[in-house]
Amino acid sequence: MKRSENKMTLGRAFRANNRAFKLIYNHYPQMVLSHLISVVWNALTPYIGIFLSALVIDELVGNRDVKQIQMLVVIALAAAAIIALGTAFLNKWKETQNAGWWLKIEHIVSEKMIDTDYVNLDDTHTAEMLSTIRQNFNGGGWGLGRVVAYYGELFSSVFTILGGLALTISLFVIKVPADKGTFTVFNNPFVVLGIILLMLAVTFVAPMLNNKADSYYAKHANSHNLGNRLCSFFGYLGYYGALATDVRMYRQDKICERYNNDKEDTFGSNGLFAHYARGPMGLYRAAGAAVSVIFTGLVYVFVCLKALAGAFGLGLVTQYVASIAKVSGGMSSLVSNIGLMCNNTPFLELTFEYLDIPNNMYQGSLTVEKRRDRKYKVEFRNVSFKYPGSDSYALRNVNMKFEIGKRLAVVGMNGSGKTTFIKLLCRLYDPTEGEILLNGIDIRKYNYREYMDIFSVVFQDFKLLSLKLGENVAGTIDYDKDLVIDCLKKAGFTDRFIKMKDGTETYLYKDYDYKNGVDVSGGEAQKIAIARALYKNAPFIILDEPTAALDPIAEAEIYEKFDGIAGDKTAIYISHRLSSCKFCDEIAVFHEGAVIQQGTHAELVSDESGKYYELWNAQAQYYVERS
């Protein structure tokens, strides 16, 4: 049984919530402090007004000393002004610190994505956890998103109760005059204790009923998440420009209508939550509200009967009614909040399961030698690899040495292991068997970050950010403008670049600068990605299908300039277009996870029984004129 399915206990709930609170505090201490101080202030300051108001009323119905009344009014007004100023300051502080709360939570989750082993991100279970965590937060606010508010409510409840008790305790201590007949029953300590217990019972019942209603949201979080996913996709399909052509050509808006108008779906009028709202959830809410009214009635009856019996005056009636209502509200909030923390615990535990995913890749400690001559010798020695959860090998017994400064082409059919080979080389994965050596030393012994720094890679699924062109190329805010322009020129981006009026400060896409941001085509984006690899200036440059989105002319241009682009770097070039292999010094042919051929283009194409010959002719037939 999963932990989230175990019996919920207060200990389990507080352990999870305390850990979450510490996690958020360590990231954003100012935000947490501003929230807690603000709620404590708001919990205690109302009692100042209640206390001063009671004094004024007592004076009005008692001695009616004008000077005393004037002094009390001045004190009350001054206190109100100070409280208002303090509240405004604290609210401003809290709102400032809480700005971008969604992004703050996303930052905590994303940090794990950056720090975790790459192999973990490829794991389906990890992807499912991350998606569920985000859906829980975006849909019902479950998980880390509720923790600070819960602790704020806890602090507020406790201080509300303490402040109220300070002004209420005398209600149960002040005795009714002995000559008041049956009213003297309120002097009996057992009667007073019974009244207190009755009030506490009623106080606790109301939030428990409300918690029961809220539990339906927690129990059916998966349905809630699915409803959100459907709504966010089908409800906003028309907003996505990239899908506009398909939507119009195939009338996909009709599919959207099916989901958006479905009254039976999660949030529909005949859906799951509507059913619960009309049934048990609604009943629990109504019962909770009714119990709250009963409590208010009990308070008024008890306070007014004691006042009628002459135990205290009108001013204290006002104080007691207001204070005891505050105490009740604080207790209700406390019980309700604890219930909500229990409901939120499984969502926190899922988050911690994700955050606690171990990093099993050894990070290494050896420093990678900084060589000006770029002479880094890399060797694959009997390397085999299985993806996590797979029983079959993606690569099997690969042996290969990279000649410094040479051009290597890696070819093969889809799924032959080419990209896996590159990811092992860059140490995004560690081999299942065998070893990869850098200058004769197992790469696992090198500092992980330093080892990765010797590679510049353009992957098939590269991404550009909606930031400035220069920042995309350099990968940093502070960049060498002349070097950026030079790299763009080498990558063949000059013609497009000269049309950008803001030059390297031009925003790509419209996300941040709708007016002046520019959209780039797939081929243009690929050239920018190549420029980014050049800017890093690493001794190894790896291009994984770098011309896939380029037109034939641009492709020929890249091929022609490739030697100049690579310079003295060791270059590895993965491609399905075998025409690109002719300029490489060596070609490695992958098939079903193994290297089955190696040699120059001339050598391999002359072997009519080889896989390279088969692939070459499969493409060449479309360019050869048939008689």
Structural overview:
The protein has three domains: 10-355, ABC transporter type 1, transmembrane domain (ABC transporter transmembrane region fold); 371-454 and 540-560 and 570-627, Rossmann fold (3-Layer(aba) Sandwich), CATH 3.40.50.300; 463-537, Rossmann fold (3-Layer(aba) Sandwich), CATH 3.40.50.300. The protein contains 23 helices and ten strands. The chain has helices at residues 10-27, 29-61, 66-98, 101-115, 118-121, 124-140, 144-173, 189-219, 221-234, 244-249, 253-260, 272-278, 280-308, 314-355, 418-425, 448-452, 469-474, 481-490, 494-497, 522-536, 552-566, 601-605, 611-620; strands spanning 378-385, 395-401, 407-412, 433-438, 441-442, 455-458, 540-544, 570-574, 586-591, 594-599. It has a six-stranded mixed beta sheet, with helices on both faces. The protein is elongated, with a radius of gyration of 35 Å. The chain starts with 9 loop residues before the first helix and ends in a 7-residue tail after the last helix.
What layout of secondary structure does this protein have?
Elements: H1 10-27, H2 29-61, H3 66-98, H4 101-115, H5 118-121, H6 124-140, H7 144-173, H8 189-219, H9 221-234, H10 244-249, H11 253-260, H12 272-278, H13 280-308, H14 314-355, E1 378-385, E2 395-401, E3 407-412, H15 418-425, E4 433-438, E5 441-442, H16 448-452, E6 455-458, H17 469-474, H18 481-490, H19 494-497, H20 522-536, E7 540-544, H21 552-566, E8 570-574, E9 586-591, E10 594-599, H22 601-605, H23 611-620
Parallel strand pairs: 3-8, 3-9, 6-7, 7-8
Antiparallel strand pairs: 1-2, 1-4, 4-5, 9-10
